[in-house]
Amino acid sequence: MERLINRDGNWTLAKYSYRDFEEKWAEAWRSGNAGGVESHPDGESRYVLDMFPYPSGETHMGHVRNYTIGDTLARYHRARGRQVLHPIGYDAFGLPAENAAMRSGISPADWTRANIERFNATYTRLGYSYDWDRVIVTADPSYYRWTQWIFLRMFERDVAYKKEARVNWCPVDKTVLANEQVVDGVCWRCGAVPEQRQLNQWFVKTTSYAQELLEGLDDLDAWPEALKAQQRNWIGRSEGLSLELALDAGPVESVSVYSTRPDTLHGATFVALAVEHPAAENLAAHAGRLEEYRALRKSSAAMSDIERTNATRVPSGLQLDVYATNPATGERLPVFVADYVIAAYGTGSVIGVPAHDERDFKFARLFGLAIRRVVAPVAGDADLPFEAPGIAIGSGDLDGMSTAEAKRVVTARAQVEGWGRGTVEFRLRDWLLSRQRYWGCPIPIVTCTKCGLVPVPDEQLPVLLPPRPDYDITGDAMSPLANLPEWVNVDCPSCGGPAERETDTMDTFIDSSWYFLRFPSATELSGPVDSDATNRWMPVDLYTGGIEHAVGHLIYSRFMTRFLRDVGLLDFDEPFVKVLNQGTITLDGRAMSKSSGHNVDPTKILEVYGADAIRVFILFIGPPDQDYDWPADQVAAVVGAHRFLDRLWQLGMAIREGVRAESASEVTLSRKFDKILAEVIRDYEALKFNTVVSSLMSLLKELRRWYADHGVTAALIDGYSRLLAALAPIAPFITHELAERLNLPPDTLDHIADVHTTEHQPENLTIVVQVDGRLADLLDVPWGTSEAEIREQALASEKTIRSLRGRTVDDIVWVPGRLVNLVTAAVP
Q: Leucyl-tRNA synthetase editing domain spans which residues (predicted)?
């Protein structure tokens, strides 16, 4: 069937060459903005969005998978008659552009602009049907003007604030990192081990929304469970008991501790303070161990919080010359400074229960402290430390209680007796916003010697990032902008006196925390959003991107949506109805790296096989949330998808050149199509694109078989047209070209109609044949066989002929789908 018969009866090979038409369609869609949509649409709508890219040097295959998924779904929804918002933008600020600019001697703005043009060309070439009138670039002043406006609203409400804090400092990128940007103990961007520094920094009070962010996860039914689990763990809600422990000596009367396991207080054998605890240095001086304390603090500063709290690490500490009283037992407990205790969590101090906490256990072993078991497993025995819930032992009147019951009893007793109170704590920390880099959104605050921190008035926004000079501006200052005095020194907006601009820039995650809200009104001039348009389109129906953004971008986005809701701009809580975490594409089992050349270059495959082949292949490799290891022969991997498209093309050319024929059983083909296309629609809705492709391959196989047996029939043309429409969201170039060459109606590819299958009906029907009301025969015919065909078969039946006994049929009574009654002429 590779060679097809033309109208002259000659065998010919219909060649498929994407070069003949893909560029034509790409330019037509781009110039006509085929993906454009109204800001205030009527009727059913969908907002389909992919996490926008950072415009680095090249598009990689991970981009292609992500954006092909989104574009396919956007095209599908349009074909289902829905209004679809499917935009694209660029997360354009950030370190790679700044570092590349320093290496190459060009400005970050020029470097970023050139990359965006390259990305746009590739996305156009791949046929992505974006609304090109809504492109957002976060480094454009028309966008970051509103990022600054949002910051000022946070500042007004004390949600944005500045304070001295111990922060993660990347020695390579020379900037601070938020806790979310320290991954496995290293910088998420460059892999360097962060240092700890005490700096005056800007923060955003994400903790004020911690409980709401946690509770909101319960309503996100279409989010992956693994993603929600990561957010729950990162928010880290815990209920415990806050205690005030009296000290027996020294310059400090008491310290506060927080315990998540008040049921274990009878097992406490020490108290530990964080090295940054406000009382630690004074207590160390009182004990005559100030130098040892400073050495411990210095070694702690070299570690991130994650490293310090790692349960597999052997902790370090220093005993102080004071004791605290355990209010639950009256016992005196030695007080230490310990590097595994984190100042920012709880009260910055803990009451150590080594039998039931691994870090306490290691610390107690290090200093030879008592280890007292006060919780036993419900059944059997367990080694120490035993951290699971169980049954209280060695705890006085708590003995025999479950962990949950004992916690309730101790908390209630502490509150009644006045030595403790029930407290809720969160692992989530406030968002560290300051960055000591040039290429970021300027913070719209000035510092006045008289007025202090003063916001830049709204009418003076945006505070423009100055052009980066040709010379190096890193200097000795923490922030490069501090070395541009002509930009830094300004008049105070409040009193007119001398003031200085804030020289840190904002973390780029603030740019991406609200960009999806801007797309419905991307050119709005009066505010960050047109509330009517945004509330009409939002929340996003499908948001596609990697799970690595679970505790960074996706938490920040949920926070920002709630904040802008409270400002009065939005009427919804959650930004994304459904999140799809697409699988990772690796090469030979290893993560791809553009810098090392270990990468699949989409442009090479585009050159050999074209855009449709890449799109078909990338969706056919498996469910979109599963990883895929690209084979070593990168280009040849796509040959199967190309072969499918080639066969589709050949059949289309055969239909164009063929002579119409008639078939007596066309309903059989139509019925098979109905059944498979119904499955295709269900799989599109369920994002099972690999099975959509598989089903469409099956349909093509049926059509090719039909053509070989029957030639070009009405059923073949109808089936082929429906196949093109169903395939168009995945392979738009070839389907549009074939529809044009076959002179199909202009809207053929614009609609994928509902298919009403009849699965309850058998493949064949039994038709009763009667002669003058008496049973003559039973006919087994395919469902949908026409009345004329059934009449013909009834008259030709041997049993019917015998029953007629030579009489003439005067009339035929037809009961659709059930019965044929042959009425004979009356005998004179």
A: 232-413
